[in-house]
Amino acid sequence: MTDPWVALEPGADPAERVRALHRAYETFTEAGTVPRPVREVVADSWRRSARAGVRPDGTADVELTDGDLGVHRAEHPLAPVVPLFRELMGTFAADGRHLLAVCDAHGRLLWVEGHASALRQAGRMNFVPGARWAESAVGTNAPGTAVALDRPVQVFAAEHFVRRAHPWTCAAAPVHDPRTGRVLGAVDITGGDGLAHPHSLGFVQAVARAAESQLALLAPARPGTRAPRLAALGRDQALLTAGGRRVRLSRRHSEILVLLARHPGGLTGDALLCALYDDESVTPVTLRAELARLRRMLGPGLLASRPYRLTAPVEADVTVVERRLAAGAVTSALTAYPGPLLPASQAPAVVRLRRHLADGLRAALIARRDPDLLADWAHAPWGEEDLDVWRSLAAVRPTAAVRARLAALESELAAPRRAARPGPGRDGRARPDRLRGLS
Hints:
CATH superfamily of the largest domain: GAF domain
Structural class: alpha+beta
Number of domains: 3
Radius of gyration: 27 Å
Order of helices and strands: HHHHEEHHHEEEHEEEHHHEEEHHHHHH
Number of helices: 17
CATH topology of the largest domain: Beta-Lactamase
Number of strands: 11
CATH architecture of the largest domain: 2-Layer Sandwich
Helix content: 40-55%
Largest sheet: 5 strands, antiparallel
Shape: elongated
Strand content: 5-15%
């Protein structure tokens, strides 16, 4: 064979190759050896798949749905070239009873479009938007292997690692960021045995190159035109990025910017004073001095007064998490949440916002009942003693370790109650704040 990335050499009999691949596949799954005529690229992929624990009878997990999928699509760098993919491949896919698919760099399918009957058949093996077709999740397949190897590749029939994909043939090529060279994802054509032809691999390669050219033509944002960004989650001192500068703020200045970013219309001096200080003896003079120092640090033009307000929109990470939660994008919201808001702050308004944000995330995680998302929260520093989340995790993933941790937390909760109020009567609702992990 002249090209190891192509499934069939010219003149090969597809039916005979299918039979030979099935025999080789069964040999591998039973004995772990890879006989001919399996290509080396496929043999290597089978071995990686087996080491990753992929089950031949398994299927892909759907990781992104509804709001999560919508947010991930909208924010993904390949979104601007999806119309190009449709223009170049859509008619070919529909007329040939094939599918056009686009995945991200983690092998998650973002778009799957094409012939209606092919879509129905593909849905039976979870070849659908939001499903993770990474090689480490479902073994050898064109989009997953293409991003794993950063090479265009064709996968034919029983070359697929999971049996449910054996009726399919696919060809995929990675798409790169033209500025950094980073793999953004892959474009794929999936269908029947007719795609086992060198032309289909050359086709997706050409489409991927066209997408990279289109991305290169998109005008990059000019320096200084991007909205200022404020990172305040999971840190005691917020970080402001504006005008090409990164400024680490003091705790008080962090609190002020968080509150002003959430109130674009501004806050009066009295309102800001109440939001920042629990102590009524603090005078407006103290606040004005803090604002004067903050204005000098930020430079001219960003902080105005009467009322105190920011003169340009500031994209705060708090707002990003809230927006994703409101859209039902729980996975994306959790991804954007590196920890509680300004954890050491005691400013009354910041404390309320910190608890509100964490409560919203916790409620969404518990309602979603996704064991991976619950485990991410429970094993984070802020969730180690979150009893409600551990109870929810134990309900959907009752491993010995999870049950043991839950028992320890419940015992710790019960001890002070027994000491303070012996006997029956526990309602199970009130608990020490430290067992919630909210602030």
